[in-house]
Structures are given as C-alpha cells and as structure tokens.
Amino acid sequence: MLTLHHLNNSRSQRILWLLEELKVEYDIIYYKRDKSTNLAPDELKKIHPLGKSPIITYKDKTLIESAAITTFIVEKYADESFYPKNEDDDYFHYLELLHYAEGSAILPFLLLLYSRFLGDGAKPLEPRIYSEIKNHLGYLSSVLGDNEFFFRNRFSAVDIMLSFVFEGAMMSKSLEPFSNLKEILLRYQKRDAYKKAIEIGGPYTIGTQ
Ligand SMILES: N[C@@H](CCC(=O)N[C@@H](CS)C(=O)NCC(=O)O)C(=O)O
Q1: At residue 46, does pLDDT exceed 70?
Q2: Does residue 106 contact residue 172 with C-beta atoms inside 8 Å?
Q3: What is the rounded average pLDDT for all residues in the chain?
Q4: Per-residue model confidence (pLDDT) at position 185
Q5: Residue whose CA is at the smallest distance from ligand 1 atom 2
C-alpha cells in the first residue's frame, strides 16, 4: 500500500487531497513542524535525505516532489478520463500547468516569505517579487478565463497542483485583483475531498488571510 509521509501545514496537503479525490487506500505517517523553527523534524530525513514533505513510499520505492507524486498517483489509481494521454492535443497544456505550479509560479511567493526575514533590507527586492507575482497570477487568470477548472473545464490534478499557488497568493493578499482565481480557490475549498483531507491532515493555515 502507498504511504504518505505527511508534514502538517505543508504541500503534503495537496497529495492528501488528491488521494481523497481518487478514493485511494493509503497509510499516513504524521510529522510535526518544529514549534520554534517551523522546519520538518529530523525523522523525515530517515525517509529521504532532503527531509521535505510530501514524500510517498510504495513497495520498496520512495518518491519526492509534488508533481512527480501526483503523476504517479494519477497514472496508477485514476480513471483514464481524469488525465490526458500523451498523444492528445491538449496533453502539453496539462503537463505544462502541472509542472508550472512548483517549477515557476510558486517561486515569487517563496521569495516574499523568505525576504521578510530581512526586514527593511528586503525593500530593494520587493518590486521584482511583486511584479513576478502579478506576472504569474495574470497569466493563470488569463489561462482560466471564464472556465470553472483549468483543464478541459473539469476538475483535474492541475487544479490540485495550482491550489498551493492560489493559497500562497491569498496569504500574501495578492489574489484580490484576480476574481476568477479567488473564485476557483473557493471552489476547491468547498470540495468534499478537500475538506476531508483537511480533517485528516490537521490544521491548515496556508490559504487563509
Ligand atoms: N517542490 C517540493 C517542495 C517540498 C517542500 O519544500 N516542502 C516543505 C513543506 S511545504 C517542507 O517539507 N519544509 C520543511 C523543511 O524544509 O524543513 C514539492 O513540491 O514537493
């Protein structure tokens, strides 16, 4: 059986949500962030040397990185209608968005988070960080347009991967100008599997203001 190594209040929440959406049977092992540093505990390094969550273990294998884990879970457990085949016209669109979330869109939010430790010293970085946030959210807003979901206008793993970007945007109060992105985040948060994953995963403050 697949095991999710779950760190509270982290990107692992997306994997838990995906597992709940697909009604996969899984085990979960909980890890708690250190109260003073907010970092993962050292036990997680016994599962993978980077000690970052999410991690899954399956049989004798270990896998890190949300998009890779998502791809494995979707290909193994989802109905074929849930994801495109690589010869489909819109496969590149799916693949690109799935990886774009962690590969590019999340970066300015992480820079914002870390630069805040610098206090006033972070000021010179801010214009570039905020212009990149606007750039990525503007792009995603135009890709979504009037649709309800990002891929084939149906709920997919792309939505799950992008949700963390919108949660980061909500926390940094950057989502306000993008009404369709605000709405899609609410749409995600209303899903039964999303709510169930929060119950299982424990208190989740990312995505709240
Ligand atoms: N790109 C990786 C990022 C993994 C990552 O940085 N996870 C954070 C939680 S959101 C973590 O484990 N941080 C704890 C630490 O660095 O000690 C992914 O999407 O899986």
Answers
A1: yes
A2: no
A3: 96
A4: 97
A5: 65
| Domain spans of the chain, in order of start | 2-81+194-201, 84-191
CA 63 to ligand 1 center in whole angstroms: 13
Which of ligand 1's atoms lies nearest the C-alpha of 67? 19
**What phi, psi does 76 have (nearest 5°)?**
-85, -40
Cα(102) to ligand 1 centroid in Å equals 10
Please report the atom of ligand 1 found closest to the CA of residue 69.
Answer: 20
Query: Which CATH number describes the domain made up of 2-81+194-201?
Result: 3.40.30.10
pLDDT at 209: 67
CA distance 58 to 136: 34
Evaluate if residue 148 carries a pLDDT over 70: yes
Q: Is the pLDDT of residue 208 over 80?
A: no
State the CATH class of domain 84-191: mainly alpha
- How far is Cα 20 from Cα 160, in angstroms, rounded to an integer? 12
178-202 confidence digits (pLDDT tens): 999 999 999 999 999 999 999 999 9
Task: Concatenate the DSSP letters of all residues of 152-174 into one string.
Answer: TTB--HHHHHHHHHHHHHHHTT-
Q: What is the dihedral of CA 27, 28, 29, 34, to 10 degrees?
A: 170
Q: What separation in Å is there between the alpha carbon of 55 and the centre of ligand 1?
A: 9
